[in-house]
């Protein structure tokens, strides 16, 4: 579905189309649906064999495109910081996300 030049904006557009089509569970409120879908994509990419960390990070970054509530934003910063810390050499970016998570709580 996503090629090597895939961008977070493409996932946001695809997700919005999916939400508007009504193909996701109707018992979950709309703000929770996009969040759960993005988390599901991120987890899928993270646990793939081999892991697709770049796509996982793109999914988590796409959460911010929806202007999430503070709790979700803090949680996403925590998840991003954790993934970046464990799977990349960019410790400054990981630290930045972890600090934003602490401030957002």
TrEMBL record:
Protein's UniProt name: Cohesin loading complex subunit SCC4 homolog
Signal peptide from the UniProt entry: 1-25
UniProt-listed PANTHER family: MAU2 CHROMATID COHESION FACTOR HOMOLOG (PTHR21394)
Recorded superkingdom: Eukaryota
Family statement drawn from the similarity comment of this UniProt entry: Belongs to the SCC4/mau-2 family.
Compartments in which it is found: Nucleus, Nucleoplasm
Organism: Ilyodon furcidens
One Pfam family matching this protein: Cohesin_load
Alphabetical UniProt keywords: Cell cycle, Cell division, Chromosome partition, Mitosis, Nucleus, Signal
